[in-house]
Amino acid sequence: MSSDHVQSAERSATVTGAGARSSSAEAPFLELLARGASADAYEQPVLLARAEGRPAEQIAGLEHTKSLALRVRSELEGRRRREAELSALFETAHDLAGLRDLDAVLQAIVQRARSLLGTDVAYLSLNDPARGDTYMRVTEGSVAARFQQLRLGMGEGLGGLVAQTARPYVTDDYFKDDRFQHTLTIDSGVRDEGLVAILGVPLMLGHRVIGVLFAADRRARVFEREQIALLGSFAALAAAAIDTANLLTETRAALAGLERANEIIRDRSGVIERASEIHDRLAELVLRGGGVHDVAATVSQVLDGVVEFTETDATPTQALETSRAEGHAVRHRDDWIAAVAAGGELLGALVLRGHPGLDPVDQRTLERAAMVTSLLLLARRSAAEAEQRVRGELLDDLLDARDRDPRLLRERAARLHADLDAVHVVLAARLDGTAADADQEAAARRRLWSAASHLAGTRHGLAAARDGGTVLLLPLGPGDTATDLARRTAAHLGAAVHEAVTVGASAPVGNLTAEPDAVAAAYEEGRRCLDALRLLGRCGAGAAAEDFGFLGLLLAGDRDVGGFVERTIGEVVHYDERRGTDLLRTLDAYFACGMSPARTKDDLHVHVNTVAQRLERVGRLLGADWQDPGRALEIQLALRLRLLADPVRR
Fold first, then answer.
1. H-helix or E-strand containing 127?
2. Kindly report the CA angle at 62 between 59 and 67, in degrees rounded to 5?
3. Which of 37, 42, 109, 105 is nearest to 77 (CA)?
4. How far is 554 from 558, CA to CA, in rounded Å?
5. What are the DSSP calls for 402-435, one per residue?
6. Contact 490, 515 (CB under 8 A)
7. Collapsing DSSP states into helix, strand and coil, what is residue 449?
């Protein structure tokens, strides 16, 4: 057996062994993932391998697989946590929609806040305008009677500071924190309860603070930003419950005090029932997975008008800002506008068209619908961001050749509805605008990555941020070319981010999992095309190497000489092969004779009319501009490359 055959057999055996080791390394961690084991359990396979004295490379493989498994476990736990949070918010919104007992709703909110944040205690206080202080309304997990009966003056203690400033406050160690005023009464109550770390967020009705929602631990703890935002969401629902309860109280008082206004009372009662109905319908819609436009359609039916969801830039600015600041729907000409916001971020608005007269309860119905819309948008954004991260991680692995198991790569791609066995094009995209500062530039890059990720998701491709821009891996459709795909991508991304985006594309690449460096090489080719476009002043355009003529040979990673010859003089070659003519030989002689028909006929020993007829045929095959300087140069280069590739043709 030759040395080449021996080396090939050794390589094959190495690959087979590596595959077997990979499978054996993955099995224990997959079992741990399947049964939801703790993070500590993932050390056992590695410790066992070391105890058994396995080879170093097997232990290294186990360490690598353990790291990947822990990442998957972390992602699954994060998703379960987000699902639990959203489920609790939706359940609370459902309780609010069917509000009958305010105490029960507030107790449910406090219980769910304590459960999701994992704290020892959660409680809610309300402001007392008559006495000018705030008092405990609901507690969960509290064991000290004095703590449950506390009253806090405005500005006293952490809760009093939150009620006074309308801002969230958090302390890792209450008794060591001097940002707020300590009093003997409050400190004694907190000490009786044994609290150390406390987080408080305001209950807001418009711009008015009506109370504070707390989560607290009996040990030092750092509350994360996501936990603060989650408690703020519960606080918003609690404020809505109180507002709705106040509305019901006002209505009952009106019924008791206006005996002569039975007809008006019946009408108002009907409106309230209608509001309760819309709340139930919205809660049901959310639970069955409805979307933003489904909410708008449902509210349109209830309010007997046209309700639309609009983006922030398509909504009157002053009315939108007023609605966000006050927390209520506001009238704008003949329309009503309710801001859709979350955590201070404007997400859009619900607009009731052509309905200048609006009952207060109907106004609150529009406001509740805006709150439900914000929850749906946040849930959709969370899911989209998770999918974008997964797509980016897979493309990073393909570019960096970290994970070369074709089966695993295909499985990961299939979960994202991508087919790595299809023909793809790698595109490098970059913004061409100049940002005023680093923050604006980073924001622009995030917008580009978000737009590219959305495009990749709709096209069953992948996208990732890279080298100050974005790289996309998109499938090539039937009859499509890399050039067409690059131009469409540049136009789509430019329109999405409202800036010029330049896109360079590689040649089509097939079987992405076979060659470790296939995607990386294609990406480098796309980047070279991108740089060439920018050097040529074609910012905001899209192109592939084939668009640059013979310069494409310099840009292409695999120097596709045959493709260049085919694109340039392929029609003439095929004509000679079918007809047995000498158009190529005539063309070569014509250029060698300085493009002189008279000298060409002497070189070929034919009549000058024969030369003219052949050149006319060449023009019909290659186009009328074939003798222009640029085209002529490419044709001469293609002729020379064809002869160099096959010297027999000389």
1. strand 121-128
2. 130
3. 37
4. 9
5. ----HHHHHHHHHHTT--TTS-EEEEEEEE-S--
6. no
7. helix
Are 613 and 581 a contacting pair, CB within 8 Å? no
Give the burial class of 539: count Cβ atoms within 10 A of its Cβ; 0-12 exposed, 13-18 middle, 19 or more buried: middle
List pLDDT tens digits, range 382-411: 655 555 676 667 777 777 865 567 777 777
Q: Which residue has the tokens 């080396």?
A: 7
Angstrom distances, CA of residue 146 to CA of 143, 214, 453, 506: 9, 17, 55, 72
How far CA 290 is from CA of 86, 97, 294, 364, 604, in Å, comes to 14, 17, 6, 21, 77
Which secondary-structure segment (H or E) carries 273? helix 262-287
In the three-class reduction of DSSP (H, G, I as helix; E, B as strand; rest coil), residue 329 is classed as coil
Four-point Cα dihedral 327, 331, 335, 340, nearest 10: -10
* Helix orientation angle between 56-97 and 102-117, rounded to the nearest 10 degrees: 170
Q: Please report where in the chains the tokens 């009859």 appear, as a residue.
A: 479
Structure-token match 């094959």, residue found = 12
Q: What residues are paired with 471 via a beta bridge?
A: 428, 464
Q: Could you report the per-residue pLDDT of 311-369, keeping only the tens digit for each?
A: 877 888 888 888 888 888 888 888 888 888 876 677 788 888 877 777 777 878 888 88
Residue 136 contacts residue 193 (beta carbons within 8 Å): no
Residue 99's contacts (CB-CB under 8 Å, 6 or more residues apart) are 105, 241, 244, 245, 248, 276, 279
Convert the pLDDT of each residue in 437-481 to its tens digit.
777 888 888 888 888 888 888 888 888 888 888 999 899 988 889
Contact 273, 281 (CB under 8 A): no
Rounded to the nearest angstrom, the gap between the alpha carbon of residue 93 and the centroid of all alpha carbons in its chain is 26
Question: Which candidate, 233, 106, 117, 219, places its Cα nearest to that of 168?
Answer: 233
Compute the distance between CA of residue 457 and CA of residue 420 in angstroms, rounded to an integer: 14
Distance in angstroms (rounded) separating the CA atoms of residues 387 and 391: 6
Q: In the structure encoding, which two tokens stand for residue 198, read together?
A: 């406390």
Residue linked to tokens 């918010």: 89
Q: Which segments of 338-479 does DSSP mark as H helices, in order?
A: 360-400, 406-415, 438-458
